[in-house]
Amino acid sequence: MILRPATLDDVALLEYWDTKPHVKWCTGFNPDEPLDPDDQEDWAEEISRTEDWIEILIGEVDGRAIGVVQIIDPAREETHYWGNCAPGQRAIDIWIGEENDLGKGFGTPMMKQAISRSFADPSVANILIDPLQINVAAIRFYRRLGFVDVGPRRFGDDDCLVMELRRAQWEEIES
Ligand SMILES: CC(C)(COP(=O)(O)OP(=O)(O)OC[C@H]1O[C@@H](n2cnc3c(N)ncnc32)[C@H](O)[C@@H]1OP(=O)(O)O)[C@@H](O)C(=O)NCCC(=O)NCCS
Fold first, then answer.
1. Interatomic CA distance for residues 54 and 92, integer angstroms
2. Which candidate, 57, 52, 56, 58, places its Cα nearest to that of 75?
3. Which one of 2, 13, 78, 112 has the fewest beta carbons within 10 angstroms of its own beta carbon?
């Protein structure tokens, strides 16, 4: 498993993955409804960004792209999705693209690399995630990685569970 920066060559694949029901769980769209083009992520624009508060990384296994991780600095992210945030944090989103690739052990090393990459910056004290409360499988996945509950929070129409991984907890797990 390697994580590499997304490029414009990945746009078509990312757009295709966005149409998948299990990915809509993650992006907050209703899995039973077709994607509204107005809500659709503009991947070309996102990937072309040069700001240092966002990284879009593709997970590759044997040269095949299998999923994506977005790491943001929630204090500096331009929409302020996370509200007013203290500095020294990161927020991560992750999804596997193909249904057939779910539950095959790809997400765990992807997420571990994203966590290590985030904590490589010594100013980062914790990492936030916000799975939908109904996404119990993802919540179990994050708990296994050491994330703990911060509490429920509503983002727009989405009832989420905010979870965090503190640096000390990660260092203990890794030692
Ligand atoms: C969450 C996710 C990234 C985990 O990656 P993965 O490659 O499936 O995970 P792994 O194979 O490394 O680990 C398996 C664990 O993942 C969790 N998991 C989450 N969603 C799963 C799914 N749809 N199928 C199978 N396992 C899933 C389970 O906890 C499973 O552990 P279990 O054996 O105790 O059930 C991936 O399942 C995914 O993309 N899910 C859909 C999108 C999503 O929910 N993203 C997170 C939003 S916050």
1. 10
2. 52
3. 78
Q: Is the CB of 108 under 6 A from ligand 1?
A: yes
What is the crossing angle of helices 136-144 and 107-119, to 10°?
A: 60
* Angle at 43 (CA atoms; ends 37, 49), nearest 5 degrees: 135
pLDDT along the chain (175 residues), means of 10: 98 95 76 70 95 97 97 96 96 97 98 98 98 94 98 94 97 93
158-166 β-sheet, strand order: 2-5, 54-61, 64-72, 89-96, 126-129, 158-166, 148-155
Q: Is the CB of 135 inside a 6 Å radius of any atom of ligand 1?
A: yes
Choices 3.40.630.30, 3.40.30.10, 3.40.50.1010, 1.10.579.10: CATH for 2-125: 3.40.630.30
Cβ of 59 below 6 Å from ligand 1: no
50 CA → ligand 1 middle, Å: 30
